[in-house]
Amino acid sequence: MTRPARVAVIYYSATGNVHRLAHALAEGAETEGADVRLRHVEEFASEMLISQNQYWGRHRAEVEDEPVATLDDLDWADGVAFGTPTRFGNVAAQLKQFMDQAGRLWQEGKLADRVGTAFTASMTAHGGQESTILSLNNTLYHWGMVILPLGYTVSEVFAAGGNPYGTSYTSGKTVDGPDTKTLAVARYQGQRLARYAAVIAAARGEDAFRVRRPRPESFHAAALGVSDDAT
Ligand SMILES: Cc1cc2nc3c(=O)[nH]c(=O)nc-3n(C[C@H](O)[C@H](O)[C@H](O)COP(=O)(O)O)c2cc1C
Predict the structure, then answer these.
(1) Cβ atoms < 10 Å from Cβ of 214
(2) For the segment 84-125, what is each residue's pLDDT rounded down to a tens digit?
(3) Which fold has domain 6-230?
(4) 173 CA closest ligand 1 atom index
(5) Which of 47, 55, 120, 150 has the least C-beta neighbours within 10 A?
(6) Ligand 1 closest atom vs CA 126
């Protein structure tokens, strides 16, 4: 019997917009019967900086009892959705820092043949939503993930900004979004991820991905942040 698909929704949010998108993706995956882990990544900005933005501080308090992402969540999942606010057209450092700790999992081939998808929020429509998702996806290529775009696979994508790369919320200066149309697409992206993750789960159950992976011996262990015994 095939086990339920495992979906991890891993995100960073400073002021709450991506946090609410992440919850909607997780809800969508759950409606498809997936086991879901919803995790925000660790904050490392200084308390001083956070205290200068009341919305940032308020959001830290909002998630303080929620679980923080660990590498085990990546190892566990058949499919992962990564969420980040746009930071100068790029991935937030907090999420990137989490991804950069995955050297050992990558080296062991444990991130390959999983499904990965991404979502974002930015202040303006042309402020870098696509570039943020594409930048994030660069890491997923290295990991050997199967990258799952939103596409125009449901008509609702058009009503929610029309971004086929992944759910993208244009927040303006607000922190009380996203709007219902964007949340609906985020839920759909979660459902879509869960469906593909279920295919991966079944294939893993049949050992379909048991291949001998090349050892990336040209990389020095220290450069990956892993100990020598992993090489
Ligand atoms: C340092 C910094 C850089 C940002 N860079 C961009 C940007 O390049 N383009 C944009 O449209 N918004 C940019 N924003 C705005 C955020 O992406 C936007 O407010 C987003 O909705 C925040 O999501 P959050 O509430 O989940 O933190 C930036 C915000 C900060 C603090």
Answers:
(1) 8
(2) 999 999 999 999 999 999 999 999 999 999 999 999 999 999
(3) Rossmann fold (3.40.50)
(4) 19
(5) 47
(6) 11
